Every structure is written in structure tokens, then in C-alpha cells.
């Protein structure tokens, strides 16, 4: 997988985690929402660490 493709996959995963977190939060499942928010954050941190030149990193950190 090319670096750009891999970075976009990580970004997509983080977005999906965040969307799921918001959905769970709205349903009142606070604990599960927190877990999903944490996964989103961990995924974005991984993206920043693995691909420091990725153009959207300025948005994430």
C-alpha cells in the first residue's frame, strides 16, 4: 500500500470511530462513546507519527 493510501485509510478509520462515538453519545452510551473517541484519537496520533508530512496533520495536532 502506498503511503498516501495508508494515511487516507487511517484518516478514514479515525473518522468512522468519531462518527460512531457521536452516535453512541447521542444514544446515552457514554462509556462506549468514550472508547470510540479514544480510538479515533489513537488512530489520528498514529497517522501523525507514521506520516509526519501528511498535509492534514496541521489540523490534527
Question: Any overview of this molecule?
Answer:
- The chain is mainly α.
- It is built from 3 helices and no strands.
- It has helices at residues 3-27, 30-50, 57-60.
- The model has no long low-confidence stretch (mean pLDDT 89).
What are the main properties of this structure?
61 residues; mainly alpha; Methane Monooxygenase Hydroxylase, Chain G, domain 1; elongated
Which residues sit in consecutive blocks of at least 5 with pLDDT less than 50?
none
CATH class membership:
Mainly Alpha
CATH topology: Methane Monooxygenase Hydroxylase, Chain G, domain 1
How much of the polypeptide forms β-strand, as a percent range? under 5%
Distance between the termini: 25 Å
Could you say which overall geometry the principal axes of the C-alpha atoms support? elongated
Number of helices: 3
So, CATH architecture? Up-down Bundle
Q: Radius of gyration over alpha carbons?
A: 13 Å
Mean pLDDT, as a whole number?
A: 89
What pattern of helices and strands is seen along the backbone?
Answer: HHH
Number of distinct beta strands = 0
Give helix % range. Answer: over 70%
- CATH H-level homologous superfamily name: Phosphotransferase system, lactose/cellobiose-type IIA subunit
Please identify the structural class as seen in this structure: mainly alpha
For the largest beta-sheet, the strand count, sense and barrel status come to: none
| Count of domains | 1
Brief characterization of the structure:
The chain has 61 residues and is mainly alpha-helical.
Amino acid at each position: 500500500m502506498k503511503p498516501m493510501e495508508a494515511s487516507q485509510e487511517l484518516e478514514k478509520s479515525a473518522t468512522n470511530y468519531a462518527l460512531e462515538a457521536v452516535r453512541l453519545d447521542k444514544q446515552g452510551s457514554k462509556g462506549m462513546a468514550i472508547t470510540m473517541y479514544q480510538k479515533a484519537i489513537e488512530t489520528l496520533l498514529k497517522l501523525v507519527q507514521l506520516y509526519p508530512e501528511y498535509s492534514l496533520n496541521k489540523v490534527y495536532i
